[in-house]
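Hi all, long-time lurker, first post. I run a small reading group and we've been trying to get comfortable going from sequence to structure in the token notation. Rather than ask abstract questions, I figured I'd post a concrete chain and ask someone more experienced to write out its structure so we can walk through it together at our next meeting. Sequence below, copied exactly:
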Amino acid sequence: MERMQGHLVQVEIYGQSYNLRGEGEAGYIQDLASYVDRKMREVSEVTATVDSLKVAILAALNIADESRRGLRPDPTITKGGPDRVARLIDMLERCFADA
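-- Answer (accepted) --
Happy to help. Here is the structure in token form:
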């Protein structure tokens, strides 16, 4: 995969700090992280699990469901289509590789 050049943005998701390298505005990446954090906290409030990986997977499923059904509460977070999703996945892979 092609490495993305860009600036480093520190975000916090579900109590964990991540340094993400991304293109464009830092505020966009922070908005994404805030959205994921909010979804994870919503899931943790309605489930009995304390396992953060399970909470993350359930939140991801909820976000995927919203996307598939066209329920996009914040259009600035979901703009960009498949290319944007591929870049976000690359960003996450690099984040975990650096950890």
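A couple of things your group might point at:
The chain is about 60% helix and 15% strand.
The chain has a mean pLDDT of 77.
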